[in-house]
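Translate sequence into structure tokens.
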Amino acid sequence: MRNKRRDLLDTEQALEAKRAVKTFSLFELGDGRPKEGGIDGKKNRAQVLDRLSRLGQGISAAQRNDFMWFKDTWDKKMLEEHGAGWPAIFVGWAQRLLNQHETGDGTAFSVFMHEQSTRCVGDEVALVVP
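Result follows.
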């Protein structure tokens, strides 16, 4: 009985965490500043990507394997491309992915990650090991 109660509690906590929402202001996502006043925009953008990656069907095993590298490399590339406007653009893209998820597209983030990987970091030289 004790084990069943613990399992039920674990399940409830997992479901609660999945439904938990978090709000990020544009300032908290960087607002053109890499780090100011203790706010780390890059870290918060990575947290948004983590949450998006768990929506719907999530990302593939291969994408999960490269996800940490993707988040860092992609964010640097986008900051170079968009400069101080990057946080606002990021918010727009994240909202579009959320909207796609809400309308039933369970693979929206996976497709987005694939497209952005190909577009932004596809030409980088990298070692691929099994």
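Note: Helices lie at 2-19, 41-53, 61-82, 86-102, 108-121.
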